[in-house]
């Protein structure tokens, strides 16, 4: 159990390793500042529809100017929504594992599980919208497997919600929590492979 929790705690640190950072680190910015000469004229605005180069200095562009606000909330919606069933489901699983010793955590676990199950439904429907780019890709089989794991995880979340209302199931909830964590890990891993594939 300790190994699983340690792996879950360490894995986010390398999740985005290898991505080009759009913003230079403060130390790089500070060391480059004396050598840089600021121009008196502001940079001309990019033409409408053109993508901004976010590799420049924040002082030139402004941090908020680099964000494509029209698509920031709606583009790749599935990639944003999936964090909720994963985080809420994992938190619920941890609560279910400690609830035999501290029963006061059971209502919190139920609420977390309900939130995760509702978010899983939203993740399913938003995921279908992102399947098209993979139709003729070698990753299409991974998409299909990810979808199957996602549906299984969502059904497992809803099954857990139902089990929380059945008093006799209370003793099986730690086992349910382990199964849930494994499903969430597999589904999340496959989703990560898809979202970070080149």
How would you characterize this protein structure?
The chain is an all-alpha fold and 198 residues long. It is 59% helix and 0% strand. It starts with a helix and ends with a helix. The relative contact order is 0.11.
Q: Approximately how much beta-strand content do the residues carry? A: under 5%
Distance between termini?
A: 34 Å
Gross morphology is globular
Average pLDDT, to the nearest integer? 77
The ordered H/E elements are HHHHHHHHH
Low-confidence stretches: 7-43
Tally the helices: 9
Number of strands: 0
Secondary-structure topology with pairs:
Layout: H1 2-10, H2 26-32, H3 58-61, H4 69-72, H5 77-81, H6 83-98, H7 106-129, H8 140-163, H9 173-195
Helix pairs in contact: 6-7, 6-9, 7-8, 8-9
Pick out its properties.
single chain; 198 residues; globular
In summary, what is this structure?
By secondary structure, the protein is an all-alpha fold. It has helices at 2-10, 26-32, 58-61, 69-72, 77-81, 83-98, 106-129, 140-163, 173-195.
């Amino acid at each position: 159990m300790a190994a699983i929790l340690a792996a879950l705690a360490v894995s986010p640190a390398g999740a985005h390793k290898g991505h080009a950072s759009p913003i230079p680190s403060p130390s790089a910015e500070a060391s480059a500042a004396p050598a840089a000469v600021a121009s008196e004229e502001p940079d001309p605005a990019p033409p409408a529809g053109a993508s901004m180069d976010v590799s420049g200095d924040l002082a030139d562009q402004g941090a908020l100017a680099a964000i494509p606000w029209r698509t920031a909330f709606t583009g790749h919606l599935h990639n944003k929504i999936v964090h909720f069933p994963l985080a809420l489901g994992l938190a619920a699983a941890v609560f279910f594992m400690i609830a035999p010793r501290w029963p006061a955590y059971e209502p919190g676990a139920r609420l977390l599980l309900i939130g995760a199950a509702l978010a899983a439904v939203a993740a399913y429907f938003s995921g279908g919208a992102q399947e098209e780019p993979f139709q003729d890709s070698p990753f299409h089989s991974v998409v299909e497997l990810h979808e199957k794991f996602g549906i299984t995880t969502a059904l497992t979340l809803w099954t857990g919600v139902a089990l929380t209302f059945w008093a006799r199931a209370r003793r099986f909830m730690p086992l349910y929590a382990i199964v849930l964590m494994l499903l969430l890990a597999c589904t999340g891993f496959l989703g990560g492979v898809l979202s970070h594939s080149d």
